[in-house]
Amino acid sequence: MNSMISLIFITIGIIFNLLGCIGIIRLPDTYNRLQASTKAVTLGCCSILIGVVFHFGLSDAGTKAIIAIPILFFGSTVAAHALIRGTYHFGIKLGDKSVKDDYKDAIK
């Protein structure tokens, strides 16, 4: 049963990573691409690590996966925010189809 649960989580993680890669290629501007890559890392890799925990249990690999999940979750979101903020300060414009710039009023 644990093998089936781990396979489901790993498959979900692979699908999220695949969709994130497609988003990096297909999305129009830097900000959307950064969002796609952050979603892929956060949801995809964390799902794979949860699958590792179910597969290996609380052995060395499972314990390392449990430790890696919050580090990866918080680290990738903070890094994406810093990258987007730096990109905005550097002067990279939003895409042509962007409707609203919420960040313009927040930064002075």
In short:
With 108 residues, this protein is mostly helical. The chain has helices at residues 2-26, 30-56, 60-90, 102-106. The mean pLDDT is 87.
Describe the structure.
With 108 residues, this protein is an all-alpha fold. Helices cover 81% and strands 0% of the residues. It has four helices and no strands. The chain is elongated. The model has no long low-confidence stretch (mean pLDDT 87).
Describe the secondary-structure layout.
Blueprint: H1 2-26, H2 30-56, H3 60-90, H4 102-106
Helix pairs in contact: 1-2, 2-3
Helix content: over 70%
User: What spatial form do the alpha-carbon principal axes imply?
Assistant: elongated
Tally of separate helices = 4
Overall average pLDDT = 87
What structural class is derived from the secondary structure elements? Answer: mainly alpha
Largest sheet: none
Number of strands: 0
Low-confidence stretches: none
List keywords for this structure.
108 residues; mainly alpha; 4 helices; 81% helix; elongated
